[in-house]
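Consider this:
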Amino acid sequence: MASKNDSSIVCPSCGANNASVTASGRCVACGARMGSLQSLRDVDLDRHRRYQQEGFSLLWCLIALVLQSVLTAALVGGLPMIVQQLDFEGSNGMIVAIPVWFVGGVLLGMISPGKTFLEPVVASFLVAIPTVFYLLQSQTVRTMPLFMYVIMALIGVLFTLIGAYLGERIQMGPPPAKASD
């Protein structure tokens, strides 16, 4: 019987036998990393986790809810009351609400401590619900069906996520230089 080569390494992911030293440092069967994972955890893992949110803050979600509510009410509802030439009824109101939520996401990303991507998104979703019904009820000339309001609200929530990510990137500054191997 043939004996297993003592210099072979068993892949921890798939169990395949590999030569002791491969050129790429990966399993020939599945492509998993074969080398020591400690160096990956220390250097690369910190760099990969730099942009990951680690928890959900209810306090910052409430702050985001207040900020997004005030911005939306002021610009979509209040500004047309002050400037009579503006009319944000119906679809025009949703077109204005999307950049308002984006700016709110950027502001919250910049001022919140740590990484907070989800809090502004949840707040924008909660603000989008009454905004959709308010604009649907107030439409007279520029009308849209309900599903279009829902789609535009979801686009606004997506833009809030993009804005929050951009605000976090501005807050964190440039990434640290990659360590030379």
